[in-house]
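In this section we walk through a basic example: taking a raw amino acid sequence and producing a predicted 3D structure, encoded as discrete structure tokens. The instruction is simple. Fold the sequence below.
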Amino acid sequence: MDDLDTSTVPSGPTTGASTASNGTAEDKRSLMDLMTEKTNMEAELSTLGAILDSHGVNMNTSLTTFDGYPRDDIPVASIRLARARIINLRNDYKALMSMIEVGLHQRHAEYRASQPPPSTAQLSSPARNTPLGEGLVETPFARVDAVVPGGPADQAGLKAGDKIRRFGDATWVNHENLARLSDIVRKNQGTRVVVKVVRESEGEGGTEELELILVPRSNWGGRGLLACYLLPL
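The resulting token sequence is shown next.
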């Protein structure tokens, strides 16, 4: 590994909260901004960890000799800076995850409020015990705009208007503007991929949740591995 140094690592503030006139913290960033900051923070923590690894130390390794003098076999000052930055980032990361959790709850509540009331069939069917966290993560993040007849998406049962809640391991939290779906499709040719969708019920004004099995493949007689068009919500 190359010998890394903290001088190449940004060390500015990691949280963007401003302070309101009453002295309380005020954060107006969107949930997507918070998710981007989470990714950046994780990348910086990884880089700082690599700095420590390159010198064969961790957060607890002693930087002094047995008689109390600074070690001369490692850059003590750089390591201390990296450790201090890691501690600050970990604290900021914890606060950021709390804000993301609140944002996910708000996003899920807004989605639920935007949905039509459940149909009579849905009201009479037994409720599913879905953990709250799973419900938040599986907020719809993409809409099926069109499906090519006879293609893999059509054979899986996808229809135009379906809203995707989960595509393999891709969810609203990590779909990266649908880029993750492309990776999943490319890496799973000929393999079953679970796709969870929300579909408007015909003639009843409600919605239904479906779990479909999609097999991306190129030998279906047309172009593309899915043969459908998706748009981010």
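Looking at the output, two observations stand out. The CA atoms of residues 26 and 54 lie 39 Å apart. The mean pLDDT is 77. In the next section we compare this with other chains.
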